[in-house]
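Hi V.,

You were right to ask for the full record rather than a summary. Here it is.
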Amino acid sequence: MTRLHSSVLTLALFILIIPQTILAQQWGFVANGEGSPVGIAADSSGMKIMVAMQGGGFWLTEDGGTSWEPWNDYMSDSAVDQSVSIQVADPQADTLLAVCFTRDDFEFDYHSIDGGQNWTSFDFDPYWPDEIPGPSSGLWKIVNEPQGTVYFACEYGFAYNDDFGTWWSVVDISTYVDNLEGMLVDPNDADIIYLYGRWSLEDYQTGEPSGGIIRSTDGGETWTRLTLMEDICPSDEGAVGGLTIMPNGDLIATTQWLFQNEPHPIFLRSQDDGTSWQWFPYEGLPGDLRAYHLISVPEVPGRLILTSGWNYGCWLSDDSGLTWSRLLSGLPVEPSSESSLYRNPFSGHLYIGMWGQGLFRSYDYGSTWEAIPIPQVGATSQFWLGHMTPDVDGFWQATTTGDVWFAQNASTEFTNFTPTPSPDSDAFTSAFALPQGDIGFLYGTKPLLETESHISIVTIDIDDWSQTWSDENIFPQGEGFTEVMTIGEGEQLQLLGYYGVDDRIYLSDDMGNTWDEVILSDQLVGSITQHRGEFYAIDWLNNDVIHTSDLTQTWESTGFPSPDPAPFILPRLISLDDTLYVSVYRDTWALTPENTWEFRGEDEFMDLWEMVVAESDTFLVGVFWAGNIDLKVSHDLGYSWQEQDIEYPWPNQSSGIQNLTYDKYRQRLWVDTGVGLAYLDFAENAVTDPWVLQPATFETVQAYPNPFNASTTIRFSLNTAQNVKLDVYDILGRHVSTLADGVRSPGNHSLSFDASDYPSGVYYLRYSNGEVTQNRKLVLVK
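Predicted structure:
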């Protein structure tokens, strides 16, 4: 089966800076989940920490996380659209290197030698040979000894200097590498440098095998290819994703094999400085784990920490990789993917950033971990598509952490509504509206150490909040769907599901208990949309828009005329009245009621867009997710586009759009900003310019089910460790039960209120954490 995965793009957006220090207790809990540090650096004490936040810029704390200062304005006069990484080269963290994308330059580096007060950029353009293609991005490394040494690598060239960038030497390495993943400098000898990344049996430039791991022993002047992957691996293509040096000098690498769906060996070891490599056996890891980063912990002989690119959390080995166990001891029990892994070379302190779960530190070399409060920026509910879903009864948000939030009717206050049982790992991947106001969720869990997912369809009746579950393990491919949509009503109701961009779709006549597979003929479909009684989709394989009336194997071409060789990126097809709209790179096209394609207009590329159909206006609105902070609108349905100024309700936010969804039932545009949901109503009057977005709010404490019979689950979330008190009172104010009274750690918590011995009636839950007191009505019905 051929499949093009809709990967999780880690493309971030810039943060508006207000020059002030922000205390942890000042952050509003307006985002679901924590931010994601994609770069971490610290001094040897652990008090001075610098983070590059996904969708939130660069931040500094000098008190271990109690307060943070935004750093973007110190670095650049241009907007920092995406922070990439940050490094330190001395115990005091005075010598710094930060890499980011800016509005004016595709990728830019900034370095400081005074602890971050003053920044400047390297310039190796005058030294870069004309015969070597110039870099647009690459890998950077600063080292402590010899002082002032800086390395830069891209797939074409390697640049090095020893005076902090005054001059550069550049070497052509294009015959050795194929898409770099990382750089490793020997901690005992900075002249020994390893570059690693993708390997290929046939390099697209030379036609010869290339990639894997290459090494220089003279500071980057000459290079040798170490791993002849074509001789030791049955996969023609793959990647070395991680590389580390053990205290005894052994090299251990992690690998990913492309087009190999079955479990395969992960680790390669070399005991002779990279001359020869062997696969070695191991125990304890999930069979389908996708290895990501790997580091050695020299303070504990034999200790390795491994992270995963999927939601498998982090793993620990104390015998050089032979046996593994899940790394918890303060890390989140519900596993996410690692966003950054960092070991301070001067103190040995370890730091892990987790996608949507924040920042964690270990002072004892990985044995125990503690959460560090971080700026509440860059947090997002968006995993890919389909996580904000309007229906007739309200608006749903399914988050990457497994929580589901619901704002009933026209309310903008969200209540946690997570169907039970809670997920062990993977979260809801999509929500879809059902006829008669019901809602459905694709619900997936992936228990650790098991290769198959447990996936179900959950149907929720809005009238009584009852839940109906399909059978588990219902999907043949074991991964679930990225999209589920309904077809027909009543006895003719069907579910249609598909995974990203695929050569097959699935149909269910029994609400997800069983599925029939339909394999397409030489087509890869995505963005399926109902239009004029038929089904339309993007055919990624043939750069076409195709349609069918009966969802069989045969889909017919619409004759899409776009000249672009690979036009379809992300935006879904939009149907309005009798016209179908498609955004193709920089062009807007429309399929007219006469079934002819009409070119509408040209503008910047957009990968998120919506059609707003309101009493005040009908228009298209879109955004380039990868760093563009501006919304684009078209009031003439694609013929012309203009920038739309917007104002957010929060300071210090990621001023960018993570997701857009239009709620046609309430004529409301929802925007996922990276620090929470904001909205704009179009129901009555024309909206003034600029658009002033309003904030959604989220209940701190929730009870589900409510009304309930016998017992209900109380859930609450904490940004920092707090003294929490939870009490239940009856309708006359008499104390009934104490559910919690003491310090609780940061994160999500749940408690059960067992009312089996109490009479039916109204009760009140009182929640207090020393700063906030909230009351929730509970209805017990027996």
